[in-house]
Amino acid sequence: MKEQLHRNVHKLIHYWRAHWFWWAVTLAALTPLAWLLWRGWHGALGVDPVNTINNETGRVALIVLFLSLACTPLHILFGVRQVLSVRKSLGLIAFVYAALHLANFLGLDYAFDFELILHDAVLTMPYILAGGLALLILTPLAITSTRGWMRRLGRNWKRLHQLVYAAGVLAVLHFLWQAKAAERAEPLIYAVVLALLLLVRVPPVRRWLVTQRTRLTRRKPAISRVLNEAKTTH
Ligand code: HEM
Q1: Which of 35, 121, 183, 212 could be 179's S-S partner, Cβ–Cβ 3.0 to 4.6 Å?
Q2: Is 53 found in the same domain as 163?
Q3: Distance 196 CA to ligand 1 centre (A)
Q4: Model pTM?
């Protein structure tokens, strides 16, 4: 009995050591949702709750999507493998926020009046199409994010999941497009950050960064391994 308990505690400690980072990042990414639900439940979403939900779910979806896109560049720049473990869950959580953003738009803003949505929103506000396309791209990525789909799709899994960059570009376009002229500074910052994240992935830039990093950390034999690692992660 005592031995069994000891073994279980040992297992738990082992699990925690291996997964604490994943849990910390995942829970942190879900905190804005909990906060939104809490305020919704207590009627504390301000004078225009639909607008609050729209702005917060949209912004958090974008930020979490960016964090998932930043994992590989962070690995290339600093060599921290741990960040790769959260890439997929961050992508999934971004999808959940984006889906809630759409549900709020369709249900709370337009009461599922699809004719009104078509005439009042889709046809008159083209930024809606950019957002819709971004979400459309994120949907198969979320569905195929499981290990089973990874195995089934083989090499095509990586190809499919590279579409996440297109989703990122469309989401930034959506954000930029819907902003009034005086509010463009923030979406422009997102556009610059996205450009930098994409730049790190350009093969010559990536190779140069890995070489610099290896030189700085003076891990001589590691260069080929690191280059290999950089090749296998997208
Ligand atoms: C079918 C999909 C989508 C629809 C219908 C939609 C709709 C909207 C609408 C109506 C607005 C508010 C515009 C305004 O206040 O004038 C908005 C803003 C926004 N959306 Fe979307 N969106 C979609 C997808 C996305 C996706 C996939 C993302 C990010 C990954 C996103 C991020 C944002 C952001 C950051 C804002 C700005 C929020 C703010 O002003 O504070 N949207 N969206």
Answers
A1: 183
A2: yes
A3: 23
A4: 0.90
| pLDDT tens per residue across span 106-157 | 999 999 999 999 999 999 999 999 999 999 999 999 999 999 999 999 999 9
Residue bearing the CA closest to ligand 1, atom 10 = 105
Report the run of H or E that residue 14 belongs to, with start and end: helix 2-41
Using alpha carbons, list the distances in angstroms from residue 227 to 75, 87, 209, 213: 11, 20, 10, 11
Q: Does ligand 1 lie within 6 Å of residue 164's CB atom?
A: no
Q: What is the span of the domain harbouring residue 11?
A: 2-200
Q: Which amino acid is at 175?
A: F
How many structural domains comprise the chain?
Answer: 2
pLDDT digits (tens, 9 = 90+) for 74-86: 998 888 888 999 9
Same domain, 99 and 54: yes
